[in-house]
Design goal:
The protein has helices at 8-17, 24-44. It has 63 residues and is mainly alpha-helical. It is elongated, with a radius of gyration of 18 Å.
Length: 63
């Protein structure tokens, strides 16, 4: 995963993909707001899942 934070070009690309008509003056604000969220999500890549069983092995029965 990239160690960079979301920049204005990234925010513009996301808005285009979502088909949002994003005013240019909002791009910088959204990039700044996305930076701490992106940093928090980046910490998830450090979690060692080890031998986590796949969800299909979960038995939901309450016998």
């Amino acid at each position: 995963m990239s160690e960079s934070t979301p920049d204005q070009a990234f925010v513009r690309a996301i808005a285009l993909q979502a088909r949002l008509d994003l005013p240019e003056e909002r791009v910088a604000d959204l990039a700044a707001a996305a930076a701490p969220i992106h940093a928090r999500l980046r910490t998830l890549s450090a979690v060692d899942l080890g031998e986590t069983a796949p969800a299909l092995s979960f038995d939901a029965s309450w016998d």
